[in-house]
Amino acid sequence: MNEVKAFSEAVQYIKIAVGEEFYGIDISIVDNIVRMQRITRVPNVASYIKGVINLRGEIVPIMNLRLKMGIDEIEYTKTTRIIIIKTELVGKIGLIVDAVKEVVALDDGQIEKLPYDNNDENHFVNAVGKVDDTLISLLDIGAVLAEKQAKEEA
Amino acid sequence: MDVSQYLDIFIDESKEHLQNLNTQILDLEQEPGNMDTINEIFRAAHTLKGMAGTMGYKRMQNLTHNMENVFSEVRNGAAKVNASIVDVLFQCLDALDEYVSNIQTTGDEGDNDNENLIKVFNDFLAGNTGAAAAEAPATAKAEEKPQLAEAEESWKKITYSDTQKTVIAEAAKEGLKAVGVTVTVQESCILKAARAFLVYKAIEELGEIIVSSPSAQDIEDEKFELEFSLVVLTKSDVDKVIAAAMNVSEIEKAVAGIVDVDAAPAPATEAVKEEEKEDKEEKVEETAPAVVDDKKPAEAEAKQTTQAAKTGDKKKPVVNRTVRVDIEKLDDLMNLVSELIIAKNSLVSAATTKGASTNNVNEQIEYLESVTTNLHESVMKVRMVPIESVVNKFPRMIRDLQKKLDKKMELYMSGEETELDRTVVDEIGDPLMHLLRNSADHGIEGDVKLRKERGKPEQGSIWLDAYQDGNNVVIEVRDDGNGIDVNAVKAKAIERGTITEEQAASMTDQEITNLLFLPSFSTAKKVSDISGRGVGLDVVKSKIESLSGEVSVKSTYGVGSTWTIRLPLTLAIIQSLMVVVGGEKYAIPLGNIQTIESIRPDEIKTVQLKEVINLRGSVIPIIRLNEVLGCESTRQPDEDYVIVVVKKGDVQAGLVIDELTGQQEIVIKSLGKYINKSKIISGATILGDGEVALIVDPNALI
Questions:
Q1: Between chains, do B681 and A41 touch, taking CB under 8 Å as contact?
Q2: Does A57 touch chain B if contact means CB atoms closer than 8 Å?
Q3: A and B: number of Cβ contacts within 8 A
Q4: Which of the residues A45, B169, B542, B578 has the least number of beta carbons within 10 Å of its own beta carbon?
Q5: pTM
Q6: Confidence of residue B571 (pLDDT cuts 50, 70, 90)
Q7: Which whole number is the average pLDDT over A53-76?
Q8: What is the predicted ipTM?
Q9: Beta strand B227-234 with A91-97: parallel, antiparallel or unpaired?
Q10: Is A91's CB within 8 Å of B678's CB?
């Protein structure tokens, strides 16, 4: 990531809406954005794992970001999207979000790092970006995904 | 030169050659005089060295070079293979293996020079040349001395042609001394050739250089390891020569002495010459435009082919990350694909023809089906590799264990050509190794007397048999050792609290034996580094099960044990039964299913709070799948139950489902790393309509 910053001033984020707030996901880890589709439930997994979908012949697990963040689940609407992210560690994972707004470019001056606090409820967020008057919480994808393992192992 | 694109080939081939070397050296140990084996080893080592050299792996090249030298001597009859050198050779193979795995993981060979091994090789060479010399009648006994001299003084090993001898003798008459000098360049030195050249120059000023090993040209081309030797005819004394050499920077050390022509290992001359010829040969190869692929050591390869024809060569390709495919199999595939295209076209035309009859379309669909089935079979065949690549390393392992445990044993293998899906073959090595180690360590009795009392030969036997059985492949590990002491297992289980005494009393021997597969269960009284840490068998079991296989053991105390691993031929595509539970579609692998039964609700009885059915005399527990899967059953209360009877080994269970939809060939897909914690779901598959259906693993349910 640091390399990207070194070459271009601004990093692009996908601005998404979950609940009342806007979040940003680093565009470099986003593989795809798909519309809501039929999800096959998988038994005996954490509640925020909604199941798996068929993404062009590949089985991709789907996580509901609302449930993950402790916000109540809502009916899927026509703005609901699944953001497919791809990480080295666990491969592809889909995140259900309320809506995808736009792509924003943030440079260092617009990003304010948050101190790391394990007890903080918002520990999926490691920085806040400012665009005009709105604040975008930048998701720490590692925390969104890894935290799950920590909980399960505990 | 960028050789990274050849790295895969290099790794594959190196492994192949290493495996070949392993096998051949094992053979050699049995028959130290077999020239075919020795030739084969020499060639493999030679090719390996060439490959390592071209790829720029200097350490690996150096080590193989030394190994090759040993075999060059052996081949020429100048040295004899003995037990100790075989041990060293195996260590050397391990070291080479380490290089290769380092290269595989990091792209670099690592920085272990394995100097000790090289030294042993050199000592061996020096020692043997000496021994051979002593045997030869033409030489004086006095020779023993220089042979025992420090290995570094390799100028003493230089051999002289008759002309050179005459020159030296002539020179002696003129008061010129023949001084041999061996110069060692510092390891860190970057421009070895340049330094060597300076040394060469400096020494040349003192007199005429008559012998150079390696040759002056090679030194210039940096074709030498850290040291090189020269013989110079000079008026100056030895110290001056050393000083001249040491004057050049980055020279580690220089040793020198007066050459005594007669003391030179004359009888070995021919052998060494031969070796030099060899050396030149390979140098030519190395300088040749370096294209690293099979063709490169074409010469060696060609020789191998002749060799193969001669001895019915045992060497077969060992498969690693790639699968080598018979061109015929590929042709088959190509044919099927063209058929598939034809089928598609016919289907399109059948569907678009005006007044298309369903009949016509159905006919085309049937055709399409047969093509896809054939295609599946062919692709499966392409993925199949013989288990040989895995089991090949076991004879060596048993040999090492034999030495380590000080027990006499022999491994007999059969069915190495049995084919399995590549993914399975890759994974099967560790479990098999565990079982073999178990047999060697715990199975075979250490006490020879005990074996005699039991009427068994002194030498223990371990068998590894593989064969195909229907859609499964069975691999058996058998030994004629101690067998499993059921009472010891029972006592241990009670002691550990795994079972209570009452339970133990009612358990059959087989059930108790199966306790061995539980985690952290080892009856070995002593923990050894071979087995007995208590992490073995449960790991074996879980590994085999992750491959959709099963493992079982049958044992008679005092007679021996048999471990049986049963694996499906392929993992990627299976036949399965599609069922509906709570409105959701699931697939159950057909391999696990015994029968499908329709049972009236009143036939379900409760025994010890568990629901069972009596099916033709046998009592089978039933599992309501909707409960396990956490969904609502859509079955009406008075409807008959549809029960799928599955089995795992000898145990049966009935799975209650809502609806059967039919049999289907499904492609297994992984659920991904993120949610693979659900044990009862072994994977997922994509149905014709694009929907995902989960695959239930009956083994996890029982």
A1: no
A2: yes
A3: 69
A4: B169
A5: 0.48
A6: low
A7: 87
A8: 0.82
A9: unpaired
A10: no
pLDDT on residue B157 = 66
Q: Are B672 and A59 inside 8 Å of each other by CB?
A: yes
Q: Given 3.20.20.70, 3.30.565.10, 3.30.70.120, 3.40.50.1220, which CATH number is that of B388-568?
A: 3.30.565.10
When the pLDDT of each residue in chain B is averaged and rounded to a whole number, the result is: 76
- Which amino acid would we find at residue B150? E
* A37, A38, A39, A45: best to mutate for the B interface, most B CBs within 10 A: A45
- pLDDT value of residue B671: 80
According to CATH, the topology of domain B1-149+272-312 is Four Helix Bundle (Hemerythrin (Met), subunit A) (1.20.120)
Residues on chain B touching A42 (C-beta within 8 angstroms): 671, 675, 678, 681, 694
Nearest to A91 among B630, B672, B677 (CB): B672
Query: Does pLDDT of A33 surpass 90?
Result: yes
Architecture of the domain defined by A2-153: Beta Barrel (2.40)
- The pair of three-digit structure tokens given for residue B502, joined into one six-digit string: 């009452």
Cβ distance of B675 and A52 shorter than 8 Å: yes
Answer whether A142 touches B (CB < 8 Å): no
Q: Is B689 on the interface with A (CB under 8 A)?
A: no
Query: pLDDT tens digit string along B263-295?
Result: 544 443 444 444 444 444 444 443 333 333 333
B693 vs A contacts (CB less than 8 Å): 40
CATH architecture of B160-263: 2-Layer Sandwich (3.30)
- What's the rounded Cα separation, in Å, for the pair B20 and A142? 45
Burial class of residue B250, CB neighbours in 10 A (0-12, 13-18, 19+): middle
- Residues A115-150 have pLDDT tens digits of 766 555 557 888 888 888 888 988 888 878 865 443
Query: Known catalytic residues of B?
Result: 46, 68, 438
In B357-459 the beta strands, taken as DSSP E runs, fall at 384-386, 409-414, 419-421
The Cα A67–Cα A76 span in angstroms is 13
Beta bridge partners of B553: B563
Task: Decide if B678 touches A, using CB distance below 8 A.
Answer: yes
CB contact under 8 A, A40 and B678: no
What's the CA gap between B517 and B649, in Å, rounded?
14
- Decide which of 2.40.50.180, 2.102.10.10, 3.40.50.1440, 3.40.630.30 is the CATH code for B573-701: 2.40.50.180
